[in-house]
Write a structure and sequence with these properties.
Layout lengths: L6 H9 L1 H19 L3 H4 L4 H5 L2 H15 L8 H14 L6 H16 L5 H33 L1
Helix pairs in contact: 1-8, 2-5, 2-7, 6-8, 7-8
This protein binds protoporphyrin IX containing FE (HEM).
The site of protoporphyrin IX containing FE has 22 residues, from helix 5, helix 6, helix 7 and helix 8.
Length: 151
Amino acid sequence: MTKPLSAKTIFIVKSTGTALQQHGVAITTRMYERLFENEEVKAMFDQSAQASGEQPKRLAGAILGYAQNIDKLENLSAPVARMVARHVETGVKAEHYPLVAEALLPAIRDVLGDAATDEVLNAWGEAYWFLADILIGKESEYYEERETEAA
Ligand code: HEM
C-alpha cells in the first residue's frame, strides 16, 4: 500500500496548480524532449500526436487535473482508467516510470526556474510517485490477467 501523501505535499501541489496551468504545455513539451533522448522510449509514442502538440496537452491536462484533485482522488478514477488502458496498449511497464520522473522534475525546473524550489520539486516528486504507484498497480493487474488468459 502506498504511503499517504503528507498534508504539506498536498498543500504545495495544490498551490502550484496555477503555475502549472500557465506553463503546463511548456513543461510537458520540455519533459518529452528529455524523455525522447531515450530512443526505445521514443518509439513507444505516436510521434504525430507529439508533433501536433496533442500529447503534451493531454499530459499537461492530466497533471493539472491531478494537482486539483490530489485531496479527492475519487474524482480521478475515469482519467486513471483511460491512462491505464492507453499504457497497457503501448506496453508501459513499471521500469519506465523512473525515466518519466527523471524527465518531468528537471523539466519543471527548466520552465519555472527559481519558482521551482527544492521544496516544490520534492513535493511534486512525492506526488508523481503516488500517482505512478496507482498506475503501476493497475497496469500490472492487466498484464497478469492477460498472461493468465494466454496460459
Ligand atoms: C504518473 C505518470 C504518468 C502519467 C500521469 C501519464 C499520463 C498519460 C496520459 C494522460 C496519456 C493520454 C491518455 C489518452 O490518450 O487519453 C498517456 C498516454 C501515454 N503514456 Fe503516459 N503517463 C505516465 C507515465 C508514463 C510512462 C512511465 C510511460 C512510458 C514511457 C508513458 C507512456 C505513454 C504512452 C506511450 C502513451 C500513449 C501516447 C500516444 O498515444 O502516443 N506514460 N499517459
